[in-house]
Amino acid sequence: MITPMCTPITKSILQEKRGGDCYSKRLNKDSTWVRKQEESFVRFIEVMNRFRRKNSAQNTHKRCVHCWLNLSKANVDAVLSAWRDFYVPVVCSPENNARYPAEMFLSIEFVNWLVTHVHDLASRKAAVEFGNELVRLDRIRILQSGDRENDEVDSCKSSDCRSREFRYGFVLCYFVDEHTQDETNWSRAVQCEFGRHCGDILAECAFHLSAVEMDFPIQSSKGSDNMRQYPYLPPHLLQYVEWGRMLFNRTYTATQAFEINIRWFMANGQTIAEITRHLCTKATNLSFHMFPIPEDPFAHAMNPQSPPL
Questions:
Q1: 57, 125, 159, 283: least surrounded by Cβ within 10 Å?
Q2: At how many degrees (to 10) do helices 31-49 and 107-117 cross?
Q3: What GO cellular-component annotations does this UniProt entry give (predicted)?
């Protein structure tokens, strides 16, 4: 579980002793803090997906800002051209064997850029609607896996219509042009919406868990000598693939805890420990608290003194 690292609020909770439900009351009023938390959370999700930012000459020589002063949503080509010159692509790390478009961008960064540089898109809502219009015109696409039935937790599958919408958050998008691959079987990735709240009581909960299957990174300590203990593997396989499932909330809100659940099907304890330690370190560096929560409060039903973790 990930929570914001707010030392002043934590101290006030301990000193005033009026309960711990004061995060949203105090922090929702600070828009700057919320924006910084969202930016840090974007970096954290990139770590979970093993993504990185592409450094290229295109991004080191930005177009003059004056070229963007007269941008209008009516001129789609000009808006997309200016955005291409500005954004820093999200790409897959070399050690990741997943299949993704060559260059992707995040909807949250695109929306914030539209609000700042397109004069008739002054609100986030208007920018999101413009993004949905670009999807309908097939100028941009939302990253989707061809195997939709395995992309969600069985008990809370989201509708296919919802998954095709342009939403504000860590939603991966890519351009459609003559170089775009006609690929429908992209790998799955951790994606979530930002700031969405549950609406009608009969509507689907915004904080239900989603799930993606992914290969776990190979630990450096596993050399070829260690593979000899698996004689049942075919001789052409240098190492076996460790993989599992990552469960996470569909929506991230800066003032609410975000749940992450790692379940492994083909992995050993060392791999899971290294992944967990790596995520905890990155969370701390990005100003988050990350701590374990018990899935079963009684690890041993017959022993009330057993530790739940």
A1: 57
A2: 140
A3: GATOR1 complex; lysosomal membrane
Amino acid occupying residue 10: T
Residue 253: closest CA among 203, 190, 196, 186: 196
Would you say residue 20 lies in a domain?
no
Q: Determine the longest span between alpha carbons in the chain, in angstroms.
A: 71
CA distances from 258 to 158, 209, 247, 255 (A): 18, 10, 11, 9
Pick left, alpha or beta for residue 306 (phi over 0 → left; psi -120 to 50 → alpha; otherwise beta): beta
Residue of 108, 97, 102 lying closest to 49 (CA atoms) = 97
β-pair type (209-215, 251-252): unpaired
| 244/216 Cα distance (integer angstroms) | 7
Angstrom distance (rounded) from CA 108 to CA 171 = 7
306 is a domain residue: no
> Which residue range forms the structural domain that includes residue 91?
28-57+65-220+239-286
The number of residues making up the chain comes to: 309
Say what the pLDDT of residue 66 is: 44
Inter-CA distances, 89 with 46, 54, 140, 146, Å? 12, 5, 14, 23
Using DSSP's 3-state secondary structure scheme, residue 51 falls into strand
| Number of domains composing the chain | 1
Please list, in sequence order, all residues whose beta carbon lies within 8 angstroms of the beta carbon of residue 270, skipping any fewer than 6 positions away: 219, 221
Phi, psi torsion values for 60, nearest 5 degrees? -90, -20
Burial 194-205 (b: 16+ CB within 10 A, else e): bbbeeeeeeeee
302 found inside a domain: no
pLDDT band at residue 168, thresholds of 50, 70 and 90?
A: very high
pLDDT digits (tens, 9 = 90+) for 196-230: 776 655 556 777 888 888 888 765 444 444 444 45
Task: Give the span between the Cα atoms of 135 and 19, in whole angstroms.
Answer: 45
Asked if residue 257 belongs to a domain, the reply is: yes
